[in-house]
């Protein structure tokens, strides 16, 4: 179909405001890091599910590929079109309505384009809590969170997007609308189809709305910043605090000294609150629905025990909301700070929590042998066994020279991950970044089932082609 005819038909569905002007397209064609770049034939912004369905039907009939996009904060290139100028970017950002709030069922039903932070605020207005929390929450969307099965910093207590979702509505690759917005906690009527679309990275259809779980609002929080001499101390500390506090342990984040050093160097106002530098830091958060939960006392008791056992070198428990925010800024700023240090290689791996120290030791040794003075920016949701084992170039190596080492570095990390029976993607997904690695590291039987599902639901291969599979 000629461009003009196609555009006329799209405008006929979404109206003139539903198509992004040529001059404004570029924001939709590159990812957050500028690591993936493409050219879209058109960027289309439907306002409701019926419009999504009609655009998808049109594309299916005309054989045009679609790249669904939310806030475009994904870290694997999944939301970016290829460079053929033939694919349509379907941005869900205009679909930002709340369809229902049901505090008695503890659920909220929202459209895919709702920004995560907005959803958190809506839950608060309803006297409830939506726990998904991550650095990009001011711009990522619920559709993107679902499509990547996002995790973040409270998975330890509340689970990832799969566990926070009761129902979804999706437009299938032929344009059919699947009305799966059930708000049920129990539904044993066959395959759990919503889970097919969650984590599918837009390869099976477009998620247009979801029923999400809400929780009681935490009324007290205690946060500590802890210096550790070794990673095994972090694992012992998780178990010590959990034994003491149960599921009031909401988050446990680990950061290498290198990670924190990048943040304090590049992000104004960020400062390590401890007097002496340490090889590792942990950020611990407890929360409770009771106002008088004495969480600070509990945290101090746990830390004192760990100090006596030689696991903790030093620690500070936040005594104000401002200090809590300052501690989280040190953690959440790592991605941005690392961008200031030139090109980086991101690896979002998971292994059994107990294996974290051995993994880091083995991977560090491999990388230091491969590229001396490589800067290892190791951090992440260690309570979930999820490390962002990110790599920045040595200071005295050019970006071009670093690029030549990229695949050897990534291969080495994934080999070490495989030696611990781990996963090459804990929470960011596969996208373009890990597609080839997934072919090598994912079970061929699982890949075969995934391909069969893809062929059944999307026989023309028009939903986000070239991503994940
Ligand atoms: P996009 O980037 O627009 O899209 C991501 C993928 O989902 C693409 O494949 C796209 O095609 C698909 N998609 C988007 N919307 C839809 C839809 N409606 N239907 C079907 N497919 C769709 N992730 C974590 O899990 N944990 C973290 O702690 C975390 N921290 C981050 C911190 C920073 C600073 C940044 C930049 C990113 C972080 N991320 C994290 C990455 C995370 O994947 C995204 O932030 C978020 O989940 C993606 O949402 P988005 O709306 O931006 O999706
Ligand atoms: C985080 O936990 C995010 O901060 C981003 O998942 C990780 O930038 C990264 O590699
Ligand atoms: Zn993360």
Automatic annotation (TrEMBL):
GO terms for molecular function: catalytic activity; FAD binding. Residues 36-217 form the FAD-binding PCMH-type domain. Its cofactor is FAD. Pfam families: FAD-oxidase_C, FAD_binding_4. Keywords: FAD, Flavoprotein. One of its GO terms (biological process) is respiratory electron transport chain. Gene3D superfamilies: 3.30.465.10, 3.30.70.2190, 3.30.70.2740, Uridine Diphospho-n-acetylenolpyruvylglucosamine Reductase, domain 2, Vanillyl-alcohol Oxidase, Chain A, domain 4. InterPro entries: FAD-bd_oxidored_4_C, FAD-bd_PCMH, FAD-bd_PCMH-like_sf, FAD-bd_PCMH_sub1, FAD-bd_PCMH_sub2, FAD-linked_Oxase-like_C, FAD-oxidored/transferase_4, Oxid_FAD_bind_N. Coiled coil: none annotated. Belongs to the FAD-binding oxidoreductase/transferase type 4 family. This is D-2-hydroxyacid dehydrogenase. It comes from Pseudomonas matsuisoli.
